[in-house]
Structure of N-acetyl-gamma-glutamyl-phosphate reductase:
Amino acid sequence: MIKAGVIGAGGYAGINLISLLLRHPEVELSWVVSEEAHKGKKLDELFPHLTNICDLACGTLDDVKKLAKNVDVVFLALPHGIALDYVPDILAVGAKVVDLGADYRFDDEAVFKKWYGIEHKDKKVFAEAVFGLPELYREKIKKARLIGNPGCYPTASILGITPLAKKGLIDNTSIIVDAKSGVSGAGRSAKVAMLYCERNEGIKAYSVTNHRHMGEIEYQVARASGDQGTRVTFVPHLVPQSRGILTSIYAKLTNNEQRTTNNLMEIYKDFYKGEPFVRIYETPCTKNVWYTNYCDIGVEVNRATGMVIVTSAIDNLIKGAAGQAVQNMNLIFGYSETAGLDKIGVYP
C-alpha cells in the first residue's frame, strides 16, 4: 500500500484522479491541495458526489513541501508553469512525481520554450523526466521518479500515428490531425466561451495553427520514427459534449498499391499486441471509451487518393489525463498496470 497526495484537486483532471485513487486497491489518498478559495473545505463539500466517500480537507500550495514528506507519490494537475516551483522540492524529500501538466513533457529545453515561452529553473530535474506514454516508454517509466503525463490530444494522436510513422508507411510531412474534444478539456475555470449558450449546438475550431499540443505531437512522432523532418498539421475543435476526444488522422501512404485496410489493421493489432488499454476495431466512437482508460483505434485506406485515415477515441479526462497518470504510477511502483483502471465503459 502506498500513500498519495494530489495537487490541483479542484479541477476536472484532479477530481477524476481522486476518484480513481479512492478505488485503487493499493493506494491510500493522504491529502489534497486546491486553490486558495478552497482552503479548509472538505472534498465532499466541493463535490457532493463524494458524500460519504471522501471528506479530506483541502490544503493549499503553501503546504506542499511539508505534506510531500508523508507520501510516496504526488500528482500535480496544474496549469503550465506552476509545477516548476514545486517538483524539485517534492523529489528532494523522496516522493515520486506524476505531473499531469505540460512542464515536464519535453526533454529538449528549446522545444519547450518555443511552445510555452518559459524556461526551467532546475535543469537537472527537467533532464530526468520521462514522457508518460506507457505504450511507447514503459521500461523507462518503470525506473523513473518524475513523469511528464502526456496531454489529452497528444495521447490520442500519438497512439494513432506512431505505428505508421515508426514503420515508414507514411510520408511524415503529410500528417494532418483533425481533433474534436468535449468541453471539459478546456478546464473548470469560468470562461464566457465555455458557457452553455456559447457551446451548445455548435462546433468550433480554435488555435488552428498554433495549439501547443501540436508541438508535443510532432516532437513525439519524430522521436518514435527517427524522422526529424516530421511535420504535423493539428486542428482542434470543441464539440458540445462533456468529455471525450475523437481524432481523425490523415497521411499519404508511401506504398499505396501494397496497402489495404485489412493489411493495416493487422499491422496495428500486431503493434499494440498485449497492450491492456489499446483496442483496434472499425470506427471508434467516444461513447465507447467514456470513463475508461482505453484508446480505441481504427484505420482505413483510400486507394483512390493514396491516403490512410486513422481514427482514435479516448476519454480526455481518463486516458487523456487521470487514468494515464494512475497507469504510470502502477508501473513505477510495480503494480499491475490495470490496477484501479479495469472499468467497463458506461453504456448507453
